[in-house]
Every structure is written in structure tokens, then in C-alpha cells.
Known about the structure:
two-stranded antiparallel sheet; globular; alpha+beta; 43% helix; four-stranded mixed sheet; 7 helices
Amino acid sequence: xxxxxxxxxxxxxxxxxxxxxxxxxxxxxxxxxxxxxxxxxxxxxxxxxxxxxxxxxxxxxxxxxxxxxxxxxxxxxxxxxxxxxxxxxxxxxxxxxxxxxxxxxxxxxxxxxxxxxxxxxxxxxxxxx
Length: 129
């Protein structure tokens, strides 16, 4: 059975809560990812995603780009363990309506799994049957 550990991205994209939306968006673009973890040291405070960028920029002023990530992130995001199956991860994403899950092992963030990661793993698994 394929686990989250098998498909997660261990290269963490991290931003501090004081960063601006523009800084977070720049880091996400440079890393080719749709989310960034908002952390202070080893502590996961939230997750900031493409949807948060769109929401920040949807206002009528230019203030969205300079707003602070802490004000725009999803605080205390749902997490998943590395030994969860890809089916369990998909269920959690569908139930919660999101596309990225931090992967936590022993209280430490060790990766992120995205809907794309899970879909690619499911496609590979189906192709080898």
C-alpha cells in the first residue's frame, strides 16, 4: 500500500508569519509549489496557499500584496502522518476542501503532500495493475 511518505515532497517551502503576501508568492513561484508553510522555528503556525493569494489580491486596493501572511494564512492547518495511505490523505483533502497537507511525524514537519502528488501516485498505481 502506498503511503504519504512515499509521495510527499520533503523539500519544505517555509515563510515567517511576518512576511508579506508578495514575498510568500515569490517563494512559492520560485519553488514551483502551490503552498508554503508558515512557521516560527520548528513550530507550524499555518499554511498559505494560492487561494490565499487570490483572496488577498481580490480587493480593490493594492494593499493585498503588502498584507501580512499571518493575516491571510489558514491557522492550525490539518495535518497527516507519513504512514497514512494515499486514500486517507485524499479523503481528508476532499472532506476539508483543500489541496495541500503538511506531513508531521513525531511533532515535526517532514514534508507536504498535495492533491497533485496523490493523483500522480494513484495514476501510477492504476497503470501498474
